[in-house]
Amino acid sequence: MPRRKTYNYLLLLFIVFSGLAGTPTSDVLSKKERKFAADYLKNTRADLQDAVKGLNAAQLTYKMSADKWSVQECVYHIAISEKNLWAMLESSMKGPATPEKKKDLTITDEQVITMIEDRTNKRKTSGPLEPENTAYKSFDEAMNDFKNARTAHIKYIKATSEDLRNHFVQMSFGLLDCYQLCLMISAHTSRHTQQLKEVKAAAGYPD
């Protein structure tokens, strides 16, 4: 085999076996969609980190009332929800694409974000996502778990070649495609970062 053909053949093998053949393609997600989702994941992570930076034990555990969550409990909920929602995405992506479900998709990307971020629309979370039912033993443990998971999720959305738009999850409020579920994860972080900021703004919040 001529040297040039041998080189091209070896290069092709390298691309296939190194995983470069699975780099992002425009027919899966547009560049705009991919960038928006990655930036949204980054920005909501940064907002949460800024909101809890430097808080002491009294500030982390302060509760406006017995039935309200503390800052620490909000973080517990954010962290466990990040993992559980992503597990739903992974489960859906393991199955076959179901493009026929697109006709049942009635919620837009913008509506997902607006609906989840809107704290005037109160809803009770499920038992496993209640802060007291998580396995976290400390604020640092929960924050580290969240940051590690979020870093992995940002990396995924920036590089995936999986067809997020043709895999779906059924939520209590309606059907979402898996790209929208990524947006929901960010919006959920924003929702509860707002909540913990309300705790910090309370009259009795410790100095």
Write the layout of secondary structure elements.
Blueprint: H1 3-18, H2 31-52, H3 57-61, H4 71-94, H5 109-117, H6 139-159, E1 168-171, E2 174-177, H7 178-200
Antiparallel strand pairs: 1-2
Helix pairs in contact: 2-6, 2-7, 4-6, 4-7, 5-7
Structure report:
It is a single chain. With 207 residues, the chain is mainly α. The chain has one domain (29-200): dinb family like domain (Four Helix Bundle (Hemerythrin (Met), subunit A)). It has helices at 3-18, 31-52, 57-61, 71-94, 109-117, 139-159, 178-200; strands spanning 168-171, 174-177. It has a two-stranded antiparallel ribbon. A hairpin with a 2-residue loop joins strand 1 (168-171) and strand 2. The radius of gyration is 21 Å and the shape is elongated.
Keywords:
mainly alpha; elongated; 7 helices; 207 residues; Four Helix Bundle (Hemerythrin (Met), subunit A); two-stranded antiparallel ribbon
